[in-house]
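Onboarding guide, step 5: your first structure request.
Type a short instruction followed by the sequence, for example:

Predict the 3D structure of this protein.
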Amino acid sequence: MHPEHILLALVVQAPTAVSAFVEPRPPERLRDRLAARRLPSVARLEDRMELAPATIEVLTAAVDEAASLEQDVRPEHLLLGVLTVAEDAAVRSLFDLEALADRIRQALRA
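The system replies with structure tokens like these:
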């Protein structure tokens, strides 16, 4: 699983966690952009999915963000993790990463 999959899951499964901080964009746009990329395959281990190294970085960053605010990990923290680690052109083209991360952190502190 790659960080882009986490972002897509957030857009689809927790849309308010994303839409509260970005201008409205249909999830199909993100889905289409990510689908156009050829991500390296990640092996499935019986009933578990292998995490790409960048995905582990995303999850670590999300936990760190939550811990810095003395909060449990929520979708917003996962989004911050994705933005922190984002190297993908599709992700970068959809968001002003620094400004978005700042808006999310401010909302979480409120």
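Each response can be followed by summary notes, for example: The beta strands are 44-45, 48-49.
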